[in-house]
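Q: Could you predict the 3D structure of GGDEF domain protein?
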Amino acid sequence: MEGLYRLFYVLAWMGLPLGIGLQLFWHPPRGGEWGFYLLFAFLFGLALLQGPRRAPRFLAHALGAYLLFELWRGRDFPWAVGFWSPSLYLLLAFAYPLPLALALGLLWAALLSAFALWAAGGPTWPWGHFASSQPVLLALTLLLARFRELYGQVRFWRERALTCPLTGLPNRRALEMALEREAARVERGGPPFALVLLDLDGFKRVNDEGGHREGDRYLRRVARALVSGVRRGDLVARWGGDEFAVLLPGTGEKEAVEVAERLGRRLQEEGVSASLGVAVYAGDLEDLFLRADQALYRAKALGKGRVVLAPPQGRR
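A: Sure. Here are the predicted structure tokens for GGDEF domain protein:
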């Protein structure tokens, strides 16, 4: 997806010289007008050098000045500037906070409208349409920017609410939501799924000897090892404290045990010992947690550093 956004960025920059090139081809400048084009080329190039984050702020005002110049030069074809004016408002919306973008947008809309009417000598048919369209284009652009901002805020808080800040893994609530989705799939006739609960052996000693900072590094290392050891589609979550959980969609008992054993070996490569309890969903999420938890404690009782599969529902 990142490559697609880079392509969009390149296309956006290619559009500007293409539009100016068409303008020069159909309406060649006369005399000293060439100097203005060289000046705008310099300003646009300067904006490009600022990088994706800062470029809109530099480019917006250079583009506004260029549009004013084209209105003055092209009194007989106002629609050419009308095509490009939304780009000015979009750049302002990306470059500034909403209140400032609104103020600057109103300023540029007023300048473009007033200059267009002045150049035409009054509210003639094409220029009147041009002037009246500017506040509408500005309003639509800022509404789009506001929706984008709200979406970003919702996404930010949703991710914070469902992510463990220490490890970056989904948290307990996120895992519960994922388990509910998997249970609903099973009820619709989908394949079973398994849950692995994992507890680190000797984590208290790590905290006692190295302090909480070392304990945090230890947990982050465990999280990376678990993520690298699961299959595509599996979900690793921070359950709490030194406990982790792994959701294995579409997985029966035998394969779930194999995945858990592989995770145990992956952790051993990092110098980490863990006990793992495995249970397969059998129609009740509470029972799934209970059986996985009991299997985990049985693994610890048997000597730690091992995997124990919970018996089917109804058998203890």
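Q: Anything worth pointing out?
A: The chain has two domains: 2-161, 172-309.
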